[in-house]
Known about the structure:
Layout: H1 2-8, H2 13-32, H3 40-87, H4 96-122, H5 133-140, H6 144-152, E1 169-170, E2 179-180
Antiparallel strand pairs: 1-2
Amino acid sequence: YPLCALAVSGERPEQIEEAMREVQEAEDWLWEAEPEEESAKLFEDKLRATRKKADDIIDRAHELDLRAEAIKTALNNIEVGKAAALEFKNRTAITDEERTKLTNQIESAEKWILEKIELQEKLSLKEKPAFKSAELVKRSESFKKFLTQLLRRREPKKKKKKKKMGFNETDSEQGDNSTVTKSD
C-alpha cells in the first residue's frame, strides 16, 4: 500500500527514491546495529523519523481518495439547508430571528467550505491538504442540529371562535342600552 500511496499522492520519481532511500538506510542501520550498543530510545527515534515521511504521503493519498465524496456530501448538506430555510418563510412557529440565525449558520458553513475547496485546488498533490474530508463534512452539518429543532416545532393550533347564541342581545327599541336575555 505505501508504494501505491506514493504514486497516487503525486510524488515525483525522485521524491519516491528519496523516501525509499531513507527506508533503506533505516533497514541497513537495523541490521548493522549491535543490540548492546543501541538503546530502545534510539531505535524509536529512528523509526519515528522514517515513518513520518511515509505517513504524510499515505495520509495525503487517503485524503485524495475521500475528498471528492466529502465535497459532494458537504455541498449537498448546504443545499438541503438552504431549501429548508426557504420552506420556513411561511411557518408561523418560527420567528424571524430564528430564520435569520439559521440562514447565517448556513451561509457561514458554505463560505468556509467554498474557501477550503478553493484553497485545496491551488495546492499540489504533494502538499498538505487544506482540509480533512471528515472536517469538511462536519462543518457542513454544523447547522443541522438547529435545523432539526426548527423542523420538529409544530405550528400553533388555530383557535376556533365560539358563537354565543341568544346571550347578551341588545334591544334596539329600548334605546337605553340595556341587555335582554332570552328565556324559555
